[in-house]
Amino acid sequence: MEKILIIGASGQIGGACMNVLAADFKLVGTYFSHAKENLLKLDFTDKENLESVMKSVKPSVVILASALTNVDYCETHPLEAKKMNEDAVSSVAFECNKINAKLVYISTDYVFDGQDGPYTEEDIPSPISIYGRTKYNGELNAKKAGKWLIIRTGNVFDYGFDEKNFVVRTIERLKNNEQIKVQSDLFASPTLATHIANAIRLLLLAKKSGLYNVCGQEVMSRSQLATQIAVFFKLNAKLITPIKSSELNLAASRPLRGGLISKKLELEVGLPAMPLQTAFSLIQKKMDKNG
Under DSSP, is residue 3 helix (H, G, I), strand (E, B) or coil? Predict the structure, then answer.
């Protein structure tokens, strides 16, 4: 059974991978700041720490699911963003080459400028934020690995891993009868982390390499998504006020017409984009199970 090292296994995508891949692969997961049972502590920006873990684990695949993803924080801390999203990726690729391991790198639709999304794998990146630029440079560094698989996704959500996502926060705020202001001009493809993990599983089992978009079926604005959340979970949609992104005075620019198209994934491994209602149903089951 192939061994996979999942860097960032305490987060949403890494956590989903720990669940979904367990039946087909031997898994070793790491965390940095969010300690969880049976995970190794790893600071993958520390070359010695990274080298030690790679030597010890000896994986045939490394899934790099850890990154600095706070878009506005990256904008105001560019050197920190570069260190984690670019330089450390190069180090991971270097260590993968030492042991002939495949690198699976998680990227984002923020590598695009949002002028004419949704985007395919053929579209040319043109990032407009520090986060987007460092993630695109991270893609280029991931390609330094002899064997690589790049997954572009966006607007990731799920339940039970890392609750700091838009869907879970919106559910909680609406349950608390909070008024929320949400962008009506920021479009993306809401994507369940478990769907991403399923895609990675199929791509690895099929021995695929290259670049693949993995996303939800719909492209919608944040305010449309919030309304869909309210309707599905039977919450008060009148608490939602659509606003323009410019009203929020955010530090970083966003690709307003973002989103992805994942036809290549469906064509090559038979996994279609997941409908939002299906994703919400899976979230509901997890919430019900959690009580």
Answer: strand
pLDDT for 196-233, tens place per residue? 999 999 999 999 999 999 999 999 999 999 999 999 99
Looking at the predicted structure, is the pLDDT value of residue 176 above 70? yes
Instruction: Please tell me the distance from the alpha carbon of residue 286 to that of residue 275, in angstroms, as a whole number.
Output: 17
- Tell me the residue type at 47: K
Distance between CA atoms of 82 and 57, rounded to whole angstroms?
26
With beta carbons less than 8 A apart as the criterion, state whether 21 and 27 touch: yes
Element at 78 (helix H, strand E): helix 78-82
- The amino acid at 112: F
Task: Tell me the backbone φ, ψ of residue 236, rounded to 5 degrees.
Answer: -85, 105
Return the structure tokens found at 82.
């570069």
Residue ranges per domain, the chain? 3-160+190-218+258-275
Q: CATH classification of 3-160+190-218+258-275 is 3.40.190.10, yes or no?
A: no
Summarised one tens digit per residue, pLDDT across range 127-147 is 999 999 999 999 999 999 999
Q: Write the pLDDT tens digit of every residue in 244-281.
A: 999 999 999 999 999 999 999 999 999 999 999 999 99
The amino acid present at 10, given as its one-letter code, is: S
- φ/ψ bin of 130: left (φ > 0), alpha (ψ from -120 to 50), beta (otherwise): alpha
Phi, psi of 147 (to 5 degrees): -125, 125
Output the average pLDDT for the chain.
96
- Pair 128, 139: CB distance under 8 Å: no
User: Which amino acid, residue 2?
Assistant: E
Torsion of CA 253, 45, 4, 263, to 10 degrees: 20
Are the C-beta atoms of residues 83 and 227 closer than 8 Å to each other?
no
CB neighbours (10 Å) of residue 6?
31
Pairwise CA distance, residues 87 & 81, whole Å: 9
